[in-house]
Amino acid sequence: MKWFMIMDESKKIRIALAGNPNVGKTTLFNTLTGSHQHVGNWPGKTVEKKEGHAHYKGYDVEIVDLPGTYSMSASSAEEIVARNYILDERPDVVVNVADSCNIERNLYLTVQLIELGANVVLALNMSKAAEKLCIDIDEDKIGYFLGIPTVKIDANSTSGADKLMDAVVSLATGRKERKPTIKYGNEIDEHTDELADMIKASDIRLNYVPKWVAIKLLENDPEVVDKIKGTDDGRKIIAEAEKKRKHLADVFGENFDNSIADARYGFIAGVIAESVEKKNIDRISVSENIDKVITNRALGIPIFLAIMWTMFTLTFVIGAPFTDIINQIFGWLAESLGKWIAEYGGPLWVKTLVVDGIIGGVGSVFVFIPNIFLLFFMIAILEDSGYMARAAFIMDRVMHTIGLHGKSFIPMIIGFGCNVPAIMASRTLENEKDRILTILITPFMSCSARLPVYILFVSAFFSENQGTVIFLIYLTGIFAAILSGFLFKKTLFKGLSSPFVMELPPYRWPAMKGALIHTWERGNIFIKKVGTVIFSIMIVIWFLASMPPGVEYASQESLIGMAGTVIAPVFAPAGFGNWQSAVALMFGFAAKEVIVGTFGTIYGAGDEGLVEAIRSNFTPLSASAFIVMALLYVPCVSAVAAIRKETNSLKWPIFVVVYTTIVAWISAVAVYQLGLMLGLG
Amino acid sequence: MAKETTLDKLKPKEKGKIVLIKGISKTNKRLLDMGATKGTEIVVVKVAPLFDPIEVKIRGYNLSLRKKEAENIVVETE
Prior knowledge:
The complex is a heterodimer. By secondary structure, chain A is an alpha/beta fold. Helix content of chain A is 63%, strand content 8%. Among the domains of chain A are: 162 residues, Rossmann fold, CATH 3.40.50; 93 residues, Helix Hairpins, CATH 1.10.287. The longest helix of chain A has 44 residues. By secondary structure, chain B is of the alpha+beta class. Chain B has a single domain, classed as Ferrous iron transport protein A (FeoA) (SH3 type barrels), CATH 2.30.30.90. Chains A and B meet through helix 3, helix 11, helix 12, helix 16 and strand 10 of A and helix 1, strand 3 and strand 5 of B. Strand 10 of chain A pairs antiparallel with strand 5 of chain B, so a sheet runs across the interface.
């Protein structure tokens, strides 16, 4: 009897999914892997990495969903990640998912995958719809001319997937000899062949297809040049490539980038002529008709605002009852456990550890969950349907003037609700630098947790104009965001103007299942990674508020109170140099809502008493300064943790913490000092 | 009479054939990747509500780009 199965190495297959964005790659990935998938980041990058596995006819299949790309050059983090995975990890098969109706542009990536030397299976997706609406593709002919197995599929059906996996297994286990069929014309082919021969004869020890290296050198690809410039042979070859590049530029009268793109599309045109028949029905017309309304000159912006408002409202309104339930559950837990511990004579520090530290900590993570899940679900639906691209199209003019991409608008809007999902939503931006820049600015979008602070101070001092004052507060935040955007663009992200050039994909019914899987995955990541950070900080704060043993929780004698006393003078120029404010602000680092509660605890006041307490301890001017401080300073630890997660680095979250605090301090001091000078004190 | 102009100057519904893309830049590389090569037909679909970017149709799909980016695409019109 066998008690264990020996995993037969030959029964393991590794495949990668590659393709343009919006072709249904993720849907295929979901179909193949079901819930057996795992989302993370590619090491050192902010690009999402999706891995999963499946079983097929006795084979153990490991599947990596590469980021959607239009090309395999080194122009973006996505392209580099995808390309390096194929070159260095050498998956057994690369499944190239293509949009059948859009076959011309999709094949541009296909030929480059073949150039790379990957074992490609072409999966013509959305084939049923394509046959009805736009195009007749003879999969055998197209496979013949490309020299690779080709299968028609519909990513959400399993029958096409089975046919695909048959082809994959067959390619993975068969002989991997491919007849080279790609021709780029005599001039280019001659020069690349010569260069390839030089590379083969040299001491260059790159395990890459020589012809691919040759093409990349002619394209002056920085990553490839970098890899071979270390040896004499390498440098000679680079010089030779330079010569050839100039020569070809003379021959064609344009720089090589143009020529190779031309040649690839020329080859593609030839393949298509033999194997494809376009129908007269224009599929795009449906989408274009919808766009007559959606991106209409007059209706475009109102519709966009309406959709944003709806997304916002639905999230925070539908989420509210759930958030309330969670708050109640944790509140009940805190009370019951607190009483129970007191009954059994547990020392105070145990009670506060359990109640404020653990339950408070865990609770502060869980309280985000309804909003996060709802927001992600809605973003997934909007993205999948194709609407996001239209939103970016409409808002780009505004975003571009502050150095951002049209797609930055969505995360920034979400930031008004909560910075955490906003930061995580920056993934919709294709370009890494755009993502980071958006993330850096988002904290100035005043989140809803800061609102209680404004309300408290505004009702204490500006009760006649509450609405207006709060509106001005939000405007200040937006102003700070725009200013920072300008500043960062001129300094940190100088000269990196990323192209806007963006596809407007056809509208599609969003795949609910895919959206749910996506939402679940993201939500899980949030709970696991971000949650542990938040929780840890809460424990630290609990500790600082409870020690030394025997002190009253969060009193001036506790560690945090002592820290507050030490720090307080820093805020003196801003008018609130007292330990209570310092402690409140420190607690605010954990979660902004906590600021109001902390004042309540410290001043020993309930709701009404608190307004009085504020009136006694602040002046209208110092209150204004405090508001500015609360508006601009460091985002809550959850947001900082989200920044860490999304930027996959330590330097950015630290930068945000430092930068926002400095800006806040300077602004608060400026407000107070200017006010004093103007005699408003 | 074939006239040469740049893509940003075309109005909605106007079409042209790409002659060349001026200069070397990340944007131009991206445009080439997206199929904006010599001899390709390109049609302007519309302009965004805030007058930038523009939407064009090329190789059977819809692409949007800023006017500044479109300035680099030289086209030939009827």
